[in-house]
Amino acid sequence: MSARRIFVPGDAGALAVGADDVAAAIARAAAAAGVAVEIVRNGSRGLYWLEPLVEVETPTGRVAFGPVAAEDVPGLIAAGLLEGKGERLFLGPTAEIPFLKAQTRFTFARCGIVDPASLADYRAHGGGVGLMRAAALPPAEIVATVTASGLRGRGGAGFPTGIKWKTVLEAAGARKFIVANADEGDSGTFADRMLMEGDPFAVIEGMAIAGLAVGATRGYLYIRSEYPHAIARMEAAIATARAAGWLGADCAGSGRAFEIELRVGAGAYVCGEETALLESIEGERGEVRAKPPLPAHKGLFGAPTAVNNLVTLASVPFILAEGAEAYAAIGFGRSRGTMPIQLAGNIRHGGLFEAAFGVTLGELVEAIGGGTLTGRPVRAVQVGGPLGAYFPPSLFDTPFDYESFAARDGLIGHGGIVVFDDTVEMAAMARFAMEFCALESCGKCTPCRIGSTRGVELLDAMIAGREVAKNAALLEDLCDIMKFGSLCALGGFTPYPVMSALRHYPADFGLAPAASAEKEIATWA
Ligand SMILES: Cc1cc2nc3c(=O)[nH]c(=O)nc-3n(C[C@H](O)[C@H](O)[C@H](O)COP(=O)(O)O)c2cc1C
Ligand code: SF4
């Protein structure tokens, strides 16, 4: 009889809550019972409140147990875990867990399912089809397919990927580059990390397709140093892909060369900004470059470069394999396809939820996320990282898409949602946004470098109750200058969390009543 396959995630989020101990306990207990088991260290399914989530392969599919602690293991095995049976912590068929069942997984289709160390497993689950198609296509056709899919950048700006690739393809240059941006600095986000740890070959496949599309011979994968597990996983996967002929002088039999090099960043937020990231790869200080020239014309080492977020790139294999129409068929308005939304902060069901654009913020926070973990009412959610606006429950009807959020002075960024209950103090959150900008500013332009420090001072004065109305007007003026005068979005978007906090929660700043405060600052945006 073949060994029973048990899945215990090796994902950093699962390791943080004891997955290694659980795997060891299962191995020990199975050996003691004389049962042969194969323990696969898969990625996470993205149901982080259930980690460590142990899955058992049965003839009718995988069943799940969670959250499992090492001390639970003997009891669970005595109750039939190795046969896929149990009561305590038993969640039934994994695919039927409502949080998973309600998702549309295109980009994360294999994450948590495959063995991330195995290229054969990746291929057995449909991986590689897109790359093989791309290898047989002329570059312009790959670009046309991605353009037709409507895919937009998942790094924050939502720029159409096909247009960016076309620009690089048509740019003159003896050499061209792909840069995969896995700096993932946004608060509450972990989609890049989950993919790298759970489905690393999808990242490689996406980068290789991008390389073939724009005529780049080398791709740089930039990962922050806080992601040691992702770094190790990607290093191993790159070596495996190279040995299999997916990388090298003849990329996937295309007759064209493509190689991937991994670079580790030290973890400055601004190094996620594409031009600061290029400086960092070149060995320089992470300082933002003025645009133009765009990286697509003059990027890494002065060569045409496509800088894309990791999720953007990992979305491409599906598009090449299933066709542009399959991707474009779902979505909302100009936001096509799916978005891996990350639910974090004070939320009951924290995790990754991949869905077609258009699901409302309220559905995400209340129905899918289950409200706050503390059980108190939700007061605010910050969407889109530290530069994203705060949304009160009165705006929970906002559909999750680029344009709907922009229309309400917000942004979806990399898809992170951080939830706060009614104990949050919004003036302190506004101060935090300004302080974050001051700490992370690259220092290149005055509105951000100086403005953020002046912003902290103004907010300190308001929090202390000094000349609140006068300082609120000054803060609004300062935000205007930062918004329109900053060189990049770090200084330019810090006004979003600050002004949204002031607009929606004036009482927290000592401004009253809400209606007049709203009127007072209604001219901003
Ligand atoms: C301060 C700052 C930080 C950023 N951090 C990231 C990041 O961590 N990851 C990312 O993909 N994009 C980040 N971006 C956006 C990038 O500059 C760039 O738009 C993106 O990598 C392009 O890829 P996409 O078109 O696939 O979204 C950041 C931008 C700014 C201004
Ligand atoms: S806005 Fe801030 S981070 Fe961006 S270039 Fe100016 S100083 Fe640097």
Task: Describe it.
- The chain has 525 residues and is of the alpha/beta class.
- It folds into four domains: 4-101, 3-Layer(aba) Sandwich (Glutaredoxin); 119-328, NADH-ubiquinone oxidoreductase 51kDa subunit (Rossmann fold, 3-Layer(aba) Sandwich); 331-421, Ubiquitin-like (UB roll), CATH 3.10.20; 426-522, NADH-ubiquinone oxidoreductase 51kDa subunit, iron-sulphur binding domain (de novo design (two linked rop proteins), Up-down Bundle).
- The chain is 41% helix and 15% strand.
- The protein is built from 23 helices and 16 strands.
- A five-stranded mixed beta sheet has the order 2-1-3-4-5, with helices on one face.
- Helix 6 (129-135) packs across helix 13 (310-322) and helix 9 crosses helix 11.
- The chain is globular, with a radius of gyration of 24 Å.
- Residues 515-525 have low confidence and may be disordered.
- Iron/sulfur cluster binds next to helix 18 and helix 21.
CATH homolog superfamily of the largest domain: NADH-ubiquinone oxidoreductase 51kDa subunit
Kindly give the count of domains. 4
User: How are the strands of the biggest sheet laid out side by side?
Assistant: 2-1-3-4-5
CATH topology of the largest domain: Rossmann fold
* Overall 3D form: globular
Q: Considering DSSP H and I runs of 4 or more, what fraction of the residues is helical? A: 40-55%
